[in-house]
Amino acid sequence: MSEPVNKVKQTQQQVDDVTNTMHIAVGKMLDNQQKVSELTDKSENMKQGAQQFKKKTNEIKRLMWCRNIKLTLIIIAVVVLLLVVIIVPIVLKFT
Amino acid sequence: MSYVPLKQPLLEDDGSFDYEETLLSERNEQAKHLAQDIYHLKGAMDDLKMMVDEQGEMLVQADNNVTTADLEIEYGVEELEKAYVYKSRSKKRIIILVVVILLILAVVIGASIKFFVKK
Q1: Nearest CA to CA, how far is A60 from chain B (Å)?
Q2: How far, in Å, CA of A39 to CA of B104, rounded?
């Protein structure tokens, strides 16, 4: 007669142990939820920062490229001017 | 003679029945308590599962954000390298420009000197 009572009490004790473990787990998950939320926010901020970094570097590249093109055009114009300055006297001498 | 034997078995049965009834009642209450605790345990497990799923989605989103940030930073670094290359070319072309301008000035000065000498 005492064995079924022990089984019920044993099962009750096991359920109590599991309940305590579940409560501890729920508490940890609540803490983790706050940490995960902060982590998501920080990763979102990092992503936005990376996007801005990408935009800025792209603008810098375009700026440098435009400067490069301008210098190229200026050099071409100056070289043409140099050639003109050299060729005109020669042509004048021949005529 | 027949009355006395009938009385004794009734007393014995009553005592045994009371004990068994008390035992069954206690066991029933314990079983109900056990079922109630298991029900609460199920509720806690459901809550835990919901939180795990939610945090899993948040972690996946965070991982995607980090991956995207990594790719964009790498792309940005490549852009910076290209910008540095263009800047270096610009410096070289500035030097070339200065040299060409000096050549033009030399030619113009030479022509001026010749012109003055002719006078």
Answers
A1: 6
A2: 64
